[in-house]
Amino acid sequence: MMDSTVAQTLVELNRCFYAEFGEDFSATRQRIQPGVRSIISRLKGNERILDLGCGNGELARTLARNGFHGEYLGLDFSLPLLREAEAQPGAFPVNFCAVDITSPHWSLDTDHCLLIPDYWSLVTSFATLHHIPSRELRLNILQQVHRLLPPGGRFILSNWQFLNSEKLKRRIQPWETVGLSAADVDEGDYLLDWRAGGSGLRYAHHFSAAELAQLAAETGFSVEESFLSDGENGRLGLYQIWRKGESR
Fold it and tell me: pTM, whole model, 2 decimals?
């Protein structure tokens, strides 16, 4: 099990990355992935969506272009990305808030965001959970997602499948680059470099469908669907739809 100090080191590594390279990263994310488009096509259009790791707000912009008329709240810890996210068309109620979901009680922070349990009909988290180190932090986030959803509510997530690409595998760097070793991290943890607008490093975890299903079961969800999408080979994103049980 990963030591909590190592987990915080990796959280800080990613925080610094998105603070320094947020604008460069956003420039590479000006359209949503095919898997996300598939999810949007299934929406009724009046959902109340809480989006964890909303990034530059491209999901909200795409929802607006598709005639969505529900409500949307996006959370992210990257101020450069949130600044871009706030440039929205205003076609429906859209809000963004700076929140670090690795903090122990992020869902109870109502000073800046209205995080009311059972209010959200849908929680999404695209390309975010794989940047959360340690089972402890992941379970804490998922338990709070469970708390925010009503019985039968759905949590939709995607996770980067970078090991399915030979090109992306060449970006893996040794842990010693950041003063750690393979013994400090968990199986499936990787350090990847960034090459746009400068040189940077990010932490990412490569999830399997079985590993995600176990996390779902441990936090009161069942996996309704799992599929691969995105990238040139259609296998760079692992999507799952979870359903909260009727009772916990």
Answer: 0.94
